[in-house]
Design goal:
heterotrimer; A mainly alpha; B alpha+beta; C mainly alpha; A: mainly alpha; C: mainly alpha; about 45% helix; about 0% strand; elongated
């Protein structure tokens, strides 16, 4: 048997969940994290991050639109996926995907973006021509009321939507953690910490992602990066990263201390098959390095240019590290036998339906969507359409 | 073959029933089958298994099991008395063509046939997002292959590794306890083919089933009892080293 | 009702939701299979469909209705509990055929067949009859001394 070491139950040898299933939580994690960053401004009144508010929302939407694609490509019968809407099984965490996704897309993200942009949309529906005019007209839902009173109502409702959006974002990504964390058959996955770790690592990736996008897009627009904004984002990134790291260390220490029947097999796997993805990439490169770099920026006063470089490096490493974490959970959880007596290997295809090229395409697609969204709904118009937030 | 008239008179009605059950379609066509009268399981006697692989071959024939996947398989354990937590286990092609000859080396050998345990608290039916896999009222965990999405969550959730995704149909597949046979009064293909009686179908709701007497007089175990799956494949003479 | 005047767009948005929900309910009514939920959260008709799959092994009781002479010989010997199809393969097609003689089972190669169970291996249970093909009359067909339906030598099974 190629690629098998030791003994595996005969049906376990081929992996069921591929790199696409690694990509899915990575994408929804970015969605949740980006939204949390947006909520920092809206709910927690962190004005410093205001320049990234609209960008964070559009980023969340761009990634959310792509999120179902890796799942559809993985399913044996994607044409049957509406069954999750018609007969969802109440004991299955996966069954809530359809409804949670739809709720988050329509009742949170689209609603919030629409409310925040409504004034711009109405103005654009009046000033643009042709197909674009039609698109904007549809988006106004036929109402051209942008009186101060209506905008104030929008702002109030938007605030409530953001407030509801925070637990909704946690649910959107936390349920994925529960999908893994509730599988008692798999000791690498089964843990009450799993949804919490997923949520915090999602916040790290989302915040790092928006920070990098803001810096890159601002550079491309040949504008000046608001360093106070980026400093603030980096600080939040640092603190949430600490929490994420602590949770993962807690899981590790607990696992090593209790050393249950799975420990010997899992420990061997982490030191051999998973050494590069887990120890080198996830922990050293993807967590410790950015943490140390960010810590330096928090305690030492460095010139702006140096800080920006560090933020870019830390943010990029953090994203790589969070992807590696998803990889190590999903793929790692399938590399060892449930008999604890053997290991298999993951053979990722190149041009197959669930192969590397598709994974890369799905990672780049949200950026394409984001580009379209930015063109359609510019986050930085000449006049800001953000309704006065005073008093609420 | 010569059959006397007398034998014919006795055998014909039995034949009629047997033939009807072989030809029958649904449980409704075999009108004697009531779902709620049965609660199926299996008894496996490790002391009798010789690792011939007949059961694996019979299952493949009966159920068109694709190559490389197994609805049932046999594992061979090779355990030393110094450390029973590190057994050597092999299952070459699921044990389908038997096992290589083993030579005596002072360590213990035995065979363990495995199949779906038809758990009464099955984790696989719990996680199915759409209700494509379920436990029937008579205790058999089945897959509705016209409804299954092929998401493979159930495959991940099974602690015993008895499920797989069918390579052509792209849906979940596994042992059905030969549901199409047991509802007609036949036994499973694996039990029919087993030459030593190591595998026996058991109907826990049937008061006359020999399993009741067996359970009262022998120590039996289930695989991975700590998972609390309510497994209904009962093993007699199962060693502690079995995973 | 000035709140409606300035919040009209919100009601339109909500209206979209309500409309979508109603469409969903209608579609659901037509799409969900009728037998779903009959016994539990699954399509009840699946049970019948699975039970209707074709049978390939006839089962020894069916064999014995015609081949009672073999059954009589077998039940007093060592292979009493070895079912017919364990050696002869799946034979429902033979049993069900209008003319069973048209669908005759192929006799298995006994050297291979017998060794499958009886070739000696330290892994097999100690009390199980085993032989070493290299030293036990190599070259001689098994049936020279062992009748497969009642193979024990001392039980008078020899030909």
């Amino acid at each position: 048997m190629s690629g098998v070491e030791g003994f595996m139950y005969p049906n376990e040898i081929a992996l069921q969940w591929s790199v696409l299933i690694v990509l899915y939580p990575f994408i929804t994690g970015l969605v949740a994290g980006a939204f949390i960053l947006a909520s920092l401004e809206r709910i927690f009144r962190v004005d410093a991050v205001a320049p990234t508010y609209r960008l964070a929302l559009l980023t969340a939407l761009a990634f959310l639109l792509v999120a179902p694609l890796p799942l559809q490509l993985h399913l044996g019968h994607p044409e049957r996926s509406p069954e999750m809407y018609f007969t969802p099984h109440s004991t299955s965490a996966m069954a809530m995907f359809g409804y949670v996704y739809l709720w988050y897309l329509m009742a949170v993200l689209v609603l919030e973006i629409w409310l925040d942009y409504r004034r711009d949309i109405v103005l654009l529906s009046q000033s643009s021509k042709g197909l674009l005019r039609l698109i904007y007209k549809v988006m106004t839902l036929g109402s051209s009321n942008i009186s101060p009173r209506s905008l104030a109502i929008d702002d109030r409702v938007g605030w409530i939507v953001t407030l509801i959006g925070i637990p909704s974002a946690f649910l959107l990504h936390g349920y994925v953690g529960f999908i893994f964390g509730s599988v008692k058959a798999n000791p690498w996955w089964s843990s009450p910490l799993m949804p919490v770790v997923f949520i915090f690592s999602a916040m790290v990736s989302g915040i790092a992602g928006v920070m990098l996008l803001y810096m890159a897009i601002t550079k491309l627009r040949k504008q000046k990066i608001d360093i106070r904004c980026v400093d603030s984002i980096a600080m939040y990134l640092f603190y949430i990263f600490i929490i994420d790291f602590s949770l993962e260390m807690l899981d590790l220490v607990h696992r090593i201390y209790e050393a249950d029947e799975s420990f010997r097999s899992l420990n061997f796997m982490v030191h051999t098959q998973l050494y590069i993805p887990h120890i080198v990439i996830q922990i050293c490169l993807g967590t410790l390095t950015p943490l140390i770099l960010l810590f330096i920026t928090q305690v030492v006063k460095l010139p702006e240019i140096v800080r920006k470089r560090i933020y870019v490096i830390s943010g990029s490493l953090a994203l790589i590290g969070i992807f590696a974490m998803r990889w190590n959970v999903v793929i790692g959880g399938q590399l060892f036998s449930k008999s604890f007596l053997g290991y298999t290997t993951y053979k990722m295809g190149l041009v197959t339906r669930e192969g590397l090229l598709v994974a890369i395409a799905l990672t780049l697609l949200p950026l394409v969507f984001l580009w379209v969204l930015i063109k359609l709904l510019p986050p930085w118009p000449e006049k800001s359409a953000h309704a006065p937030a005073a008093g609420n | 073959m010569k059959i006397s008239r007398r034998q014919m008179l006795i055998l014909l009605p039995a034949a009629a029933v047997a033939w009807e059950s072989v030809m029958a379609g649904t449980p409704e066509d075999a009108p004697n089958y009531k779902l709620t009268d049965h609660w199926w399981g299996m008894l496996i006697d490790i002391s009798k298994c010789i690792g011939c692989g007949n059961c694996v071959r019979a299952c493949q024939t009966e159920n068109d099991v694709p190559d490389g996947f197994f609805r049932t398989w046999v594992e061979r354990y090779h355990v030393s008395d110094e450390d029973m937590t590190r057994p050597d286990v092999i299952s070459p092609d699921g044990g389908k063509e038997g096992f290589p000859v083993a030579s005596e080396d002072g360590r213990k050998y035995f065979f363990v046939p495995k199949l779906c345990n038809h758990c009464s608290d099955s984790p696989c039916t719990q996680v199915c997002p759409v209700g494509a896999t379920f436990i029937s009222p008579d205790g058999v965990v089945l897959v509705d292959q016209t409804y299954c999405l092929g998401c493979a969550y159930c495959v991940q959730a099974c602690p015993y590794g008895c499920r797989y995704i069918h390579p052509e149909k792209k849906v979940a597949d596994k042992c059905t306890l030969c549901y199409h046979r047991i509802t007609k009064g036949l036994t499973t293909a694996c039990c029919e083919a087993c030459p030593t009686g190591a595998r026996q179908l058991a109907d826990l709701k049937n008061p006359n089933d020999p399993i009741h007497e067996f359970l009262k007089t022998h120590s039996v175990q289930v695989l991975k009892p700590q998972m609390a799956t309510g497994a209904k494949a009962f093993y007699y003479d199962l060693d502690g080293s079995v995973r | 009702m000035s709140v409606f005047k300035d919040a009209g767009h919100l009601f339109r948005f909500a209206g979209l939701f309500v409309l979508a929900f109603l469409v969903f309910l209608v579609v659901r009514h037509y799409v969900v299979p009728k037998s779903f939920g009959q016994y539990g959260h699954y399509r009840g008709a699946a049970i019948g469909e699975i039970a209707a799959r074709p049978v390939k092994f006839a089962g020894h009781e069916t064999c014995e209705t015609c081949h009672s002479d073999v059954a009589d010989k077998k039940k007093i010997g060592k292979h009493a509990h070895v079912n017919c199809e364990a050696c002869h393969g799946a034979l429902a097609s033979h049993a069900n055929a209008d003319d069973p003689t048209a669908v005759m089972p192929v006799l298995p190669d006994m050297a291979v067949l017998c060794a499958q169970c009886h070739r000696a291996s330290a892994a097999k249970p100690k009390g199980f009859p085993q032989f070493d093909p290299a030293s036990h009359y190599p070259g001689s067909p098994c049936k020279t001394c062992h009748h497969p339906h009642s193979p024990g030598i001392d039980a008078g099974g020899a030909k």
